[in-house]
Design brief:
The protein is α/β, with parallel strands linked by helices. The chain has helices spanning 9-23, 28-35, 39-51, 72-78, 83-90, 106-113, 128-134, 159-165, 191-202, and strands spanning 25-27, 55-58, 61-64, 99-102, 121-125, 140-144, 148-150, 155-157, 172-176, 179-181, 185-188, 207-211, 222-225, 232-235, 253-254. The chain has a 7-stranded parallel sheet with strand order 6-5-4-9-12-14-15, with helices on both faces. The protein has a 3-stranded antiparallel sheet with strand order 1-3-2. Strands 10-11-13 form a 3-stranded antiparallel sheet, with helices on one face.
């Protein structure tokens, strides 16, 4: 029989959904026994799947959501460009009550678009597109940074944005990236964006860098930070992908 004791979270989620396809309903104690993990771990896994519309929570367990027939792996395969895969992984880092920096980019928008409607957060952002997405959630307080507005990226940057970012302390900073290299760290194509990222890193308790596989081992001209400046790297790659090998001993968590 397959040993699930060291199963990574993605595999557990797939296993839960596979069981649901056969049983239509599962309980916490059943899943904890199947996967050799605690019931608290199973509750968190069920919460992740419920928040992403893949099942429905019930007392003591979960049941299949009939209107959403996709398995976890099918859904992540379906998600366009890997951005929603990153967003799905990033959800586990978000807790109600947090203050979060979100900067520019479509991956940041994907994270904002997957927040549950009952989220209670304070979000500080220079990204106008994120503001529109978050406006649908009543208990998210939105703070918009000023500065020079770039119509191409729909973001603000410059001295004013940097000054305003420095007035806050965030629990989390979701940082979009232009380029990541195992030897040179994180770099940006625009100095103004890079300097704002530096300010947000300085004002955050935890920095989460976001990157699809195509940005790995690439370099832009402006240095944002070494890997000592980030705590987590979230990618759209599977945990065993060899493209991640150069990043496994860099001192941050890989998701």
């Amino acid at each position: 029989m397959k040993n699930h004791s060291n199963m990574v979270k993605e595999k557990r989620l797939q296993h839960i959904l596979k069981l649901l396809q056969n049983r239509e309903m599962v309980t916490y104690d059943l899943l904890a026994g199947e996967l050799s993990v605690s019931e608290d771990t199973i509750r968190r896994d069920i919460e992740t799947l419920h928040n992403n519309g893949l099942l429905s929570k019930i007392r003591g367990g979960a049941m299949l959501r009939s209107e959403n027939p996709l398995s976890f792996q099918e859904r992540t395969t379906y998600l366009q460009g890997g951005k929603d895969v990153i967003a799905l992984k990033a959800q586990q880092l978000i807790k109600n009550g947090q203050t979060i920096f979100m900067d520019g980019g479509s991956t940041i928008c994907a994270i904002a678009g997957r927040l549950p409607l009952n989220s209670v957060l304070k979000v500080i952002t220079n990204n106008q597109a994120v503001v529109q997405i978050l406006s649908r959630i009543p208990e998210i307080e939105i703070i918009i940074l000023g500065g020079n507005y770039d119509r191409d990226t729909a973001t603000s940057s410059g001295t004013q944005a940097i000054y305003e970012a420095g007035k806050y302390v965030a629990d989390l900073y979701f940082m979009g990236t232009c380029a990541i290299h195992h030897a040179f760290g994180i770099t940006a194509s625009l100095q103004t964006e890079g300097e704002l990222k530096q300010a947000m890193i300085k004002s955050s308790l935890k920095t989460v860098a976001l990157s699809n596989g195509e940005k790995l081992d690439s370099i832009e001209y402006f240095k944002v930070c070494d890997f000592s400046g980030i705590d987590v790297l979230v990618t759209d790659l599977a945990s065993g992908d060899p493209k991640l090998n150069n990043y496994r001993a860099q001192g941050f968590q890989l998701l």
